[in-house]
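Follow-up to my earlier ticket, as requested here are the two runs.
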Amino acid sequence: MIGEDLQRETLDLLRRLIACPSLSGREQGVADILKRYLAENGFSTLEIDRYGDLVAGVAGTRPGVRLLFDGHMDTVPADNAGDWTTPPFEPVIRDGKLYGRGTSDMKGADAAFAVAAAQYLRERGRDFAGELWFAGVVQEECFEGVCAKEVAKRVRPDLVVIGEASEGNLKLSQRGRAEIVLETFGVPCHSANPEKGVNAAAHMCALIDEILKLPPTKDPRMVGDGILVLTDIKSAPYPGASVVPHYCRATFDRRLLVGETRESVLKPIQAIIDRQKELDPTLNARVSYPMGSAVCSTGETVEAERFFAPWWFAPDERTQRVKAAMEARGLTPKITGYSFCTNGSYYAGEAGIPTFGFGPSRENLAHTVDEHIALTDLYDAVDGYLAILHAVLD
């Protein structure tokens, strides 16, 4: 484990990050904290791009790999602060754990990597091969990989490390994510005479009943199946007292496996719509991916279709070298994959850039009441990032 000085440095930086709320689109305060720290610790390039991403880098004296650490700066809200045992933006240590919104997802990793990078530069100066880059990315909670594309255009990385929680393991794959919208269109009428109209909600129920029978897709290389989960249903008008609804919309969360495309994911749902229409010609339905948009702290609008790609890489010589370097420091990483979605959707899933994940804490602590990180996990992550830096850049 790292020494007490580095432990204090990491904890101090993380506390400052937690005390600065940074909802998606409001990450500027955290970007300023990280930018100042990196500027004071050897990074020579420090930029804020059009979306508000922090992009910081330093080049070694010898040619080599462009290594990019990706860590998003935004968090989900803590609107249920009354349910927390500690205030979500007042970092508190209890029983060897630091509590606060973003400790696990993922300011803990941001702080750990920043300190590891600072320590690496103290040890090596500029005597390393390649370039070391840090990206504090915005809007990840809403648009996995979309703002990361802007970072990749600037850095052109050869290797990306995703800092999302991995329990100290090396993650070489990730399920993708898609939002699917199913709409039905009817004809309104008085509910006392339902035969005069077409009930969009009833049609929706029939379609959902069939759609939820679809078997999940599978891939033994991936963690988790290609599941489809119904997340909401809305009809119009609402409330619908004495009115047959003329419109209904349902949203599904679909987790994606490698090889699945925009077209292949919608195809079985469209087939169900077509079969149901043969049984009931009054059915009018449409399935699609919605577009999402949000305003960034810079005033720029980010917009994207809600389809975020999966990815998988086979373990290679570099992976084994990184794993061995971690083990030499007393860590015990396993090679596995993420079940959730990350900014790797762009780097690996779309751009094909070699990518792996490594970060402190557990996936199931993200977005929770009393979110926390074990201090031992936090400090081990600094050790792990130092191992990665030496394995890749020395």
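Run two:
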Amino acid sequence: MIDWRLPEMRFGMFLVWRRNLLVWRKLLIPSLLFNFGEPFLYLLGLGLGLGRFVGELGGLPYLTFLASGLIASSSMNTATFEGLFSVYTRMVPQQTYEGMLATPLEVDDIVAGEMLWCATKGLFSSSAILLVAFLLGAISHWQALLCIPLFFLTGLCFAGPAIMVASFSRSYDFFNYYVTLVLTPMFIFCGVFYPVATLPDFAQSVVRLLPLSHSIALIRPLATGQEISQVILHIGVLLAFALVSFYWAVVLVRRRLIQ
């Protein structure tokens, strides 16, 4: 039977988070290179190259417009790949979770700790891109510092669905479905490269249901010093995605590890 109980928030989740942090410290350089490299290349190649032809977009220089979208999507991508590949590795090939469950830790602690860690890595990645954007002159407003908690919230929002996918995957290849059918469309259509308002009305309605759109709607105005609107709505949607996906991630991981 499937265990449908609500997850319990216990101190053990911080122990799982700390364990992942200590492991990550040993792989700091290659990890940062992977999470930081692709957005940096987008920023240079498209922001500086294509930006010369585009000029301004949404009242912003294209480099600034692109940078403010990439710092949001970087948190999404980093948290997602951590929740897919790293969680699956610890769950199946390494059987790390079986060792954890032999201690007082429970599945709820493991999943909560993994979500916190995914969000933390998303924060690291987006903060690095924010720093580069500042050094390139793409972002200079002091309000950009207020984006840092939103990097964590964005990562938390995408960690849960990734762990859900990892919980019923039978191989790494299965992740291609999620990346191709879910992650990449959000990256392309949710406003990273161009305003959502340029899409057809139906497409706009669909895109605005996706969490990355709400993350960008918060981060872009803060990063560029523009007026921000519907703050409660956007934060509420991100929190709802995080909480609902956390519950389902716990349920699915319980089924895989315990039954």
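The only thing I checked on run two: The chain is about 75% helix and 0% strand. Let me know what else you need.
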